[in-house]
Write a structure and sequence with these properties.
By secondary structure, the protein is an alpha/beta fold. The chain has 20 helices and 31 strands. Helix 2 packs antiparallel against helix 11. The longest helix is centred in the N-terminal third of the chain and has 16 residues. Bound molecules: adenosine-5'-diphosphate and zinc ion.
Amino acid sequence: MKSASLFSTLSETLADVAQPQQRVSVLLPMPFKGPFDYLSPPDITLNPGDIVLVPLGRRQKTGVVWETSSDLPPDLAPPAEQKDRTDTSRLKEVAELLELPPLSADLRRFINWVAAYTLTPPGMVMAMTLRLHMHGVTSAGTGWLPADTIPADLRMTPARQKVLDLLRKGLPQTTTDISAATGVSAGVVKGLADARALRAIKLEPECPVEAPDPGYRLPVLEAEQARATTALRQSVEKGGFSVTLLEGVTGSGKTEIYLEAIAACIEQGKQALILLPEIALSAQWTERFIRRFGVAPAIWHSDTGQRMRRLTWHATANGNASVVVGARSALFLPFEKLGLIIIDEEHEALYKQEEGVIYNARDMAIVRARLVQCPTVLVSATPSLETLVNVQSGRYRHLMLPSRHGGATMPETRIIDMRVHPPERGRFISPALTEELSATLARQEQAMLFLNRRGYAPLTLCRACGHRMECPHCTAWLVEHRARKRLCCHYCEYFEPVPVTCPACHEENTLTSIGPGIERITEEARELFPDARILVMASDTLTSPTAITEAVTRISNREIDLIIGTQVVAKGWHFPYLTLVGIVDADLGLSGGDLRAGERTFQLLHQVAGRAGRASAPGRVLLQSYTPEHPVMSALLSGSQDRFMAQEAMQRQPGFWPPYGRLAALIISCEDAAKADAVANAFGRMAPYGEGIQVLGPTPAPVAVLRNRHRRRLLLRTKRTIALQPILHRWLDMVKPDRNVRIDIDIDPVSFL
Ligand code: ADP
Ligand code: ZN
């Protein structure tokens, strides 16, 4: 007999007899290295995954019973810590087992995996699962009614009376609901319960969504679409882990097809998770979902009220929500029976979370799929080089839709060489683009102008002394937002009124706006086309999904002639009457030391261009550029995406840049520049070395000061065969910076700012 099973029989027998208090590890949603040990309450057996309340200092904290052993691959396992496990006398007791569904083994393993891969304390990763339903966590499953007999000695207070009056109406209510309705604190409810004046009623959380009907409206598929659909359906029906890239030009019906994979998943009685780069996209997406399945999916985003979030969390955990769509945080929901993950627009940089736990939701979604053994579909018209390399090596399957649905043609693309055809002085729209815009509007078709910069002007300069208006807290110019009469920092929350005199030379009216933002383009367009109905789409003008839905509806109803927008417009919108897209500054984004600057610009501009001519009328794209010979421009012009990506690959291969090597960034920051330098230099001196290992830096970050913190960067680069995590653990152990110095670790960095 194996010792493990001997132990379990023995402890089970003992439990029957005496119920000794169990020692349990509890992971708290805090930045500790690992779980803490507690004793289980005398009469309760706790299991891994149970959500509990434990004392910590003088407070109580929600935590999760966590196993101490982990089954991580050796490369990822953090260095083991020595713990004395014999002394139980000083351990505190778990206060309460909460009435919440326990976190499943695969979710716990996933959390451990993400923590180890990103070198984040596991509690902080677990917090993403827990935080999702934190509000009202203790009362989620318990409602209260007055006790059958109220104890005669109950001390009555006005607050207690209010609660009892409310509950005498006969509807059991949670503590949160009671507080909301009466304004009394949770303590009053607890006091009443402790005094046995209330009885607890277990409440089944109601389901926030109806069951989608996979047979509600079946699509009529074209031959290529049908082939791809069959392939996807098969992998869902077969189950097990697989990754498929669903590639197809914009408008080829990729969404249409993966909706069929979702149908297959529902038919299997499993749950599907759809990740979108931005929840702003969910409005049009939901509509299509309703058309296909008859009801709306569960939507996960910060805009939904707390109650709805709690219900959705529960519906995910008990399997009632069969389809959940959300942005990256939805990946940490406690799915009961996940059967499919779809990552739409997989190339999007927005999948990378840059604050708190720094992780890439696309990559981690694949990890989660592997741990639960379910298929994953990556969807894009412009797949990332990472994904393409995985397709080439055979790790991912590839489904391709080469043409647009219904015979719609790809837009015709032209470059306007701004060196030859410059706009008038102080203008940014060239005569050639103006002409096309007029013609389009005259045909009563819609046009779009794209510029990936919010505000009026990116720089305000003094004509007299050359002074540039900068953020006092960041290495950044202040961006003028004329509508709000402000200069704003786009890196922090700082803003100030637009000054009348130059703060350096005190001359009056010498400050000039340099360069365009979309406000300025809008001003210019209003002068050029005074009769056009213009809509501005930017993250600061459309601040909620509702606002975006409204905007999209107005465009679809042809209440808008000209759309002017930032990257918001580049998303998967389907605007059938849009036939002209003008890109105001195609070169924007190409400069700077970003590894993926070319790839990213290509993807963005290709997506924007893809908004044109998606229905019967053919589309046209005009790119204004000062570098028409740049490979990105020729790729956009010729539509030869494969060749462009092959060139990108060739540039990255020799130096082992991703995806041919691994990369991690160390960002050292401190309010004191000298301290930041000292620590950065110490890391530089201790830099790991060896065959296939290289450290670049330290150097000041491009945004050298951010929110008053001086930032230094180091990059660790290894060959693909060498794991970064063990190297990083050893390296981080060698430098002990003082408390004011922060060290952020960014595995697989996407941003190099
Ligand atoms: P993509 O996701 O590749 O950009 P979509 O799935 O949005 O493409 O399809 C583009 C448009 O064509 C949508 O309006 C969609 O409803 C329509 N469409 C695509 N395939 C079909 C089909 N087989 N039958 C009817 N409409 C389709
Ligand atoms: Zn700032």
